[in-house]
Design brief:
The chain is mostly helical. The protein has one domain. Helices cover 78% and strands 0% of the residues. The chain has 22 helices and no strands. Helix 6 (93-109) packs antiparallel against helix 8 (119-129), helix 17 (312-327) runs parallel beside helix 19 and helix 17 packs antiparallel against helix 21 (389-412). The longest helix is centred in the middle third of the chain and has 32 residues, at 264-295. The chain is globular, with a radius of gyration of 22 Å. The model has no long low-confidence stretch (mean pLDDT 81).
Length: 425
């Protein structure tokens, strides 16, 4: 069985370069194993429907809808203006404002792509207008966008929690400290670059400007407060919080007057299209995961690993290397759905905390979104900045190191990811 699955996976890997959608290839690989192994093919629709029938997964379309509403409501401009007032007067101020704005936006969008394509448009234009070169603006925008899926709410963590059967609430809390550390690490690097390159800073704001920026951004700033407050008090679950967030985003849009009723069908249609692709990935990955399980490949791989690597740190370091390489070539959610059935069982057997492991996996794959050749966030920022892809890649390279430093920190210090979940347990 294992040899059959390995052959199928080898063919599947080669087929990746054909350009076919990855969810089609995953479904075909799972179906091919079922056929060759003599398993009743009725299992295919059964696995599809079981994967789709998931209460926690209901959060995904709601968070996607919230991100679309936020991008359509003028929230991004107000957030960046508030961030600029807060830290724009520092040396290299708009770089700091870019990072701080991403931290705030992360509490609403939960997506690196939404961050880069939403607030990133405003950030790059403002930085260029202030005299920053396009490469620096694009690079810091791409790097700071990776904070979005780490600070809750987070779409990748919802997908991970569903696939790995891990508490989504704990994953959300586990990402708070690493997300803030990512912002701090990037700001430290920006400070050093600002001194070396003599980057400009914005004028020190007056009291009136601070008040106007805060009042303008206040409804948007309250979104993370509403979400966390509701989840921490038990008023609603992490899954239900997604619906609350989407409704709150709609109210904010109406409050600002930037969302019109006639635009809502377009936003909903965009959400449905994105959700459709996501659900196809989840369902096909469920079938492939079942095939892997029946072939006993994960069990044999896990037994070999636990026999070879007896330490948690050794296994986590190996997983980091694997995921950093995989992230260079595969989209994050696809890679996650494929690798979770293989990587999670050995981690649990070694006694690694499921929250720590989940955050490590997500952070690895988010770093992959800004590494070539398939860094989707790099492609988006290059398009937004109207720059060649290779120039954005070179400019982003220094900003990878602070993110890798945070990854190493959460690998060696579990408390950075587990302290908040344990405190609120």
């Amino acid at each position: 069985m294992t040899s059959v699955m390995l052959i199928i996976l080898a063919v599947w890997f080669v087929a990746l370069f054909s350009g076919a959608p990855i969810y089609v290839l995953m479904a075909l690989a799972g179906a091919a194993f079922a056929y060759v192994a003599g398993i009743d093919l009725i299992v295919i629709p059964q696995k599809f429907t079981k994967a789709a029938d998931s209460f926690p997964l209901l959060a995904a379309p709601m968070y996607i809808l919230m991100g679309s509403l936020m991008n359509s409501s003028g929230v991004t401009e107000r957030i960046f203006r508030f961030a600029t007032v807060c830290v724009g007067w520092w040396k290299g101020g708009l770089c700091h404002a870019n990072i701080f704005g991403s931290v705030i936006f992360a509490g609403m969008s939960g997506s690196a792509v939404a961050d880069a394509g939403g607030i990133g448009v405003i950030e790059i234009k403002a930085m260029r207008d202030a005299g920053y070169d396009g490469e620096t603006a694009a690079a810091i925008t791409a790097a700071s966008a990776t904070i979005g899926p780490i600070i809750p709410p987070s779409l990748p963590m919802i997908i991970y929690g569903v696939a790995a059967e891990t508490s989504i609430g704990n994953l959300f809390l586990g990402g708070v400290i690493p997300g803030l550390l990512m912002a701090l690490a990037l700001m430290i690097l920006v400070r050093a670059l600002a001194i070396r390159k003599n980057l400009p800073s914005a004028p020190v704001p007056g009291v009136v400007e601070i008040r106007e920026a805060f009042v303008g951004a206040f409804p948007a700033l309250m979104c993370p407060v509403v979400l966390f407050g509701g989840m921490m008090t038990g008023f609603f679950t992490p899954t239900e919080s997604a619906a609350v967030a989407a409704f709150y985003a709609l109210l904010v849009g109406f409050y600002y007057g930037d969302i019109k009723l006639r635009e809502i069908p377009r936003v909903v249609l965009e959400t449905v299209e994105t959700t459709g692709v996501l659900m196809a990935l989840v369902m096909s990955a469920a079938l492939l995961g079942y095939a892997l399980s029946m072939s006993r490949l994960p069990q044999e791989f896990g037994a070999w690993l636990t026999g070879t690597l007896s330490s948690k740190i050794g296994y986590l370091l190996m997983v980091n290397v694997i995921l950093l390489i995989v992230g260079c070539f595969m989209e994050a959610i696809s890679a996650m759905l494929i690798l979770i059935p293989i990587l999670v069982p050995p981690a649990m057997a070694l006694g690694i905390d499921p929250t720590q492991f989940g955050v490590v996996v997500v952070l690895n794959l988010m770093i992959g979104t800004i590494t070539p050749p398939v860094g989707i966030v790099l492609f988006i920022t290059a398009r937004v900045a109207n720059l060649p892809f290779d120039r954005v890649c070179r400019a982003t390279w220094p900003f990878l190191w602070p993110l890798v430093a945070v990854l190493v920190a959460i690998t060696f210090v579990p408390g950075l990811t587990t302290s908040l979940p344990n405190y609120f347990r």
